[in-house]
Design a protein that fits this description.
The chain has 270 residues and is an alpha/beta fold. Helix content is 43%, strand content 13%. The radius of gyration is 19 Å and the shape is globular.
Length: 270
């Protein structure tokens, strides 16, 4: 995309935020929400509150990153705890699981926005998110959550380009996703399982120095690993991978030759 077109999208984003007046940003510290927060601060200043929702589904290492960037941007930042696992509908992991997760999140954020006299809750959904299966979008509609990046026509690639141009270290950060997205539908979600996934991914990242996308899909006693194709060769020594994951309870390890792709768990329902 030409720089002129990208600049046009950025102007649209700023104009949309300006019209919103004051916002609570659903801020995970990922690529999209970090750019949204930075631009919102540029446009609205003190009329912005960044809120990070902490739960068992959120990778533990991400909180420190989100906090550090919020401090760097001089943003008002609040951390709340959501309780998705207390929802029977979420824990049983139906194909619309994401709806129950987002319902819990946006209900909490909506109340917080009202308490802080902020007019809108905004999230970092981009245009690419319209392609994949996203049942959480229903919750967005129900709670009136606005997606300014999407409305401005920004794709993930655009977000990365703009982030780099604005000096955000998140521009090259791997895609961030809820840990529950590693568990196949209709297979029950619990705290122990989510913690195991987080430990497995952290162990692999540390051992093999992964910089890109990495997912450990949890099939009970079987772990299926997806990684960016440019880094998947690091996993060729399967015995080394097994040595890391078997103590966590995985008896079988499979390296997915297709590599990482967004929403691979949705392939079975498309």
């Amino acid at each position: 995309m030409s720089q002129a077109k990208l600049d046009t999208k950025l102007r649209k984003l700023k104009a949309r935020l300006r019209r919103l007046g004051s916002v609570l940003v659903a801020y995970s510290g990922g690529v999209d929400s970090s750019l949204l927060l930075k631009v919102a601060l540029q446009v609205l200043g003190d009329n912005v509150l960044a809120v990070t929702a902490l739960s068992e589904t959120y990778p533990a290492a991400e909180l420190e990153c989100a906090r550090n960037l919020a401090i760097k941007l001089r943003a008002r930042h609040k951390v709340i705890r959501t309780r998705e696992l207390e929802s029977r509908d979420f824990a049983r992991n139906p194909v619309n699981r994401c709806y129950y997760c987002k319902k819990e999140l946006f209900a909490r954020l909506g109340s917080l926005a009202k308490k802080n006299d902020l007019r809108f809750v905004v999230d970092g959904s981009n245009v690419d998110d319209l392609v994949d299966y996203r049942p959480g979008a229903r919750a967005k509609e129900e709670f009136g959550v606005v997606s300014p990046l999407q409305e401005a026509g920004l794709t993930k690639k655009d977000v990365r380009h703009l982030s780099k141009k604005m000096g955000l270290g998140t521009w090259c950060k791997p895609a961030l996703a809820c840990l529950a997205s590693r568990i196949p539908y209709h297979s029950r979600i619990d705290k122990k399982r989510l913690l195991r996934i987080d430990k497995a991914e952290n162990a692999l990242r540390k051992e093999f120095c992964f910089r890109g996308n990495l997912r450990v899909r949890d099939y009970g006693e079987e772990a299926r690993i997806e990684a960016d194709k440019k880094e998947i060769r690091k996993l060729l020594c399967v015995s080394k991978v097994e040595r890391l994951l078997k103590p966590l309870g995985y008896k079988k390890v499979i390296i997915d030759p297709k590599g990482y792709r967004t929403g691979s768990m949705n392939e079975a329902i498309k």
